[in-house]
Amino acid sequence: MTMDCQQCSDDLTAYIDGELDESAARQLKNHLETCDPCRAEYEELRDSATFVSEHAAELEPVPEIWNNLRSRIAELPAPAGSSGVSRLLVMNRWAAMLATVAAMVVLALGLWGFERYEQSRSELESYMNEYIQMRTAQERQYELQMIQERANALQNEPGAEQTTDNPFADMRPVALTNPFHVEAR
Amino acid sequence: MRSGDMRSLRLAIAGAVLGTTLFPTMPLLRAQTWDLNKTRSVAESQHEIVMILIRKKEFDKAAEEANKIFKMKWPDDQEPVLLKELKGLADQFHLNQQSALAVRLLETNISIFKTVKSKAAIWKEKGYLLEKMGQHDKALDCFREAQRLEKNGIHP
What we know:
By secondary structure, chain A is mainly alpha-helical. Chain A has helices spanning 5-17, 22-34, 36-55, 63-75, 84-91, 93-154, 179-184.
């Protein structure tokens, strides 16, 4: 089976690098012996490869190349699914740590404040309940007193209609209890 | 001059000096006492008017008349009596199912009280009435204010 020039051209690089199997390499070698243009191309490629392998160590990229490369990377659009905040956190570990600490402080303060609020509310509730219990007892006593007064009134007992809830009445100075003084008023 | 006469003369001079010093203030003291007695007397009558109006179920009118007691000019030392009156009248309204009027009476007249003790007592009474009216949060606010006053002794 003979090889055409196109196939030879395609396999030349692999041949130079020693990547072709034995049969293919033999066919290509036979073709190169009979075809001048392909042989010329082969020699050109072989010389280039030799040059690169001999001088590769001397080829150091200049800083401008790296700068150019970086600016091009920066101009590329961000991959889908990565938000600004997450990128920032990934890029800056300190920022992520600070954010975590701040969140913990806020949480701790919130819990402390809530506990204090609950404590003061509980104190307030007991303060309130104490007064309400006292007043409720007073109210019941007053109601019982009123019932008693009504019962007395029904029995026409003397003094049943007297009211004792006027604070001005029982605090009058002795002088005002004088009947003449009352008349003068 | 005998020693007994000398003593009598000294006493007479001392009496004259004392009399001259105190005499100008006597009418003032008398007038103040009389004014207070008059005020108390008017307040006593006013109280009875309020009680009659409450018994007649004329609550709005009773509240108006009650306010008049606290609008009168009272000396500072009468604050305990006025506090007793304010709480007593508010209680009367409350016992007659007029708790809203009782609360308003307390709110209207709290400003005449100067001591922290009286103010705290009024806030507590208002809180009690609001609690009985089912307004728990407002009642708590009142008790919080009373507690603050009692703890810190702050005049609002």
